[in-house]
């Protein structure tokens, strides 16, 4: 039987940390409803102690969204945890997400603690959080650059203290897939009580590796992926939900894993988040970009028109897109042009078509895309 992967969406927390993004409460709730419809398992709704707006976000989503775990982020501090517990108190399934750094870089420069002190602080935070909720996720910030033996020690101690999920963030987007996979696998194999927790991938995209690293973590045994819609987030962003979900779906033969996501909701949710955050989706973005199902060259158009799978591994309907698109450009061939002309109601003898094709190429050389209006002009001239 295939392994179930939990989808933890952090669009409203890490995603909202994207420079320039600020969502109002009604917008957060609209996104929250869309995420429930999409089928995510956990929504990280904010960092309650950080601002009244984040507190309200966690509280409002806790009160209004059912059938999903609502999570609030905290530092490993008692006050943070108490405020998060208060914001989460009406949630059907509340989760506190607490933790602190594990790399020597973070310990020395940011936390100014020894490894031993940080371990003690982390363990106390988990114990404190377990007084309020049964579901406590522990994050080890900057795991990607941390000493492995120390990471193993932290994981063992926080699981013993009651953590149910262990988040292994590659906070700085530093690792490569093989390293990240071996980090997750190493933890699972070397920590004696690892069977008592779920391991979670949380990757950033500084070197463009977030999706690959997250999938590598899944191969290493992780049971949860932390993602955002359209990959929005700090700096170069977080792992994109739609890329991970569709990779697991399309390559089920390889991963043998499944999620609860309704893939047809991917594009509508992506468009909603883009509209509300003002973060434009790049045209060639995998899975949800405007060009993701568009074909412009003659060779590709000919293939797709004969059989879609020649150049498309994802049926656009599967992600909620209408259909594959044939875009007419100077690289388009006769098959593509004939197809488009037929779609707008024209058919010609071979001789007349050749003349139209020659006229079409002249127009195409002057424009990035030949529109239906251009075609009508070509036909009528
Ligand atoms: O990137 C990171 O390490 C985080 C943690 C706060 C979970 O976002
Ligand atoms: Zn992060």
Q: What does this entry look like structurally?
A:
This protein folds into two domains: 3-277, TIM Barrel, CATH 3.20.20.70; 294-380, no CATH class. The relative contact order is 0.10. The longest helix has 16 residues, at 115-130. With 381 residues, it is α/β, with parallel strands linked by helices. Strand 3, helix 2 (52-64) and strand 4 (69-73) form a beta-alpha-beta unit. It has helices spanning 25-38, 52-64, 78-87, 104-111, 115-130, 148-161, 177-190, 210-219, 241-250, 252-255, 266-277, 298-306, 334-343, 350-364, 372-380, and strands at 3-4, 6-9, 42-46, 69-73, 93-101, 136-141, 165-170, 198-203, 224-227, 257-258, 294-295, 325-326. The strands form three sheets. An eight-stranded parallel beta barrel has the order 2-3-4-5-6-7-8-9, surrounded by eight helices. Strands 1-10 form a two-stranded parallel ribbon. 44% of the residues lie in helices and 14% in strands. Helix 1 (25-38) packs across helix 2, helix 12 packs across helix 13 (334-343) and helix 14 (350-364) crosses helix 15. The chain contains 15 helices and twelve strands. Bound molecules: 3-methyl-2-oxobutanoic acid and zinc ion (ZN).
How many discrete structural domains? 2
Helix content: 40-55%
Unreliable stretches: none
What's the average pLDDT? 97
Specify Rg, calculated over alpha carbons.
25 Å
CATH architecture of the largest domain: Alpha-Beta Barrel
* Shape, principal axes of CA atoms: elongated
CATH superfamily of the largest domain: Aldolase class I
Oligomer status: single chain
CATH topology of the largest domain: TIM Barrel
User: Strand content of the residues, in percent?
Assistant: 5-15%
Return the structural class: alpha/beta
